[in-house]
């Protein structure tokens, strides 16, 4: 009987150890694929070119950011059978309620944004872009696009890949009215430039105000010192008239 407690303790230790061994021997739960991979794999089945897929399914205006509604409706229209809302939550790690192309494919997003900025900076309008790249025609072919982009200082290549986004529905030719994203980009660019000009004007006004305040502060200090001196000398006249006569500034 005296040995019973030690036997119980030993049995308890063995039992605990056995439980620990069983817990460690259990296979770890496998996590599913990353949500970015899920989206890339799914839209690749719809359209192998990720730029064209992104634009056709989610973002026809080339904004490169979409809302949760745009994402969910786009995935459902494309035939995704999973939980689109849960998928969006997994993608939206910053809880912004928006999704950008770089959260799906960072390299593709960088190239697309660079191309859009180049178009906006290089051409006055969709008509100007088509006219200049097509050598004076009112439509743009894939051949002209691939050959002539570099003549207008496009340096990042991938013209064949980018054409898939320009000719969004696999058109043989692209006309100016099909480049609405370019017109929107120009409008956004103009708005940003106007805001920059306004900010510069506001900044200039603030600088001028500070200069005037500094001058005024210096003048007040000078007046104060002069008033003290006049008072000490018991000047009988009106200080304002004296100051006006002594002040050299008009």
TrEMBL record:
Keywords assigned: Calcium
Domain of life: Eukaryota
PROSITE patterns found in the cross-reference section: EF_HAND_1
Region called Disordered, residue ranges: 1-30
Alphabetical list of InterPro entries matching this protein: EF-hand-dom_pair, EF_Hand_1_Ca_BS
Protein name according to UniProt: Calmodulin
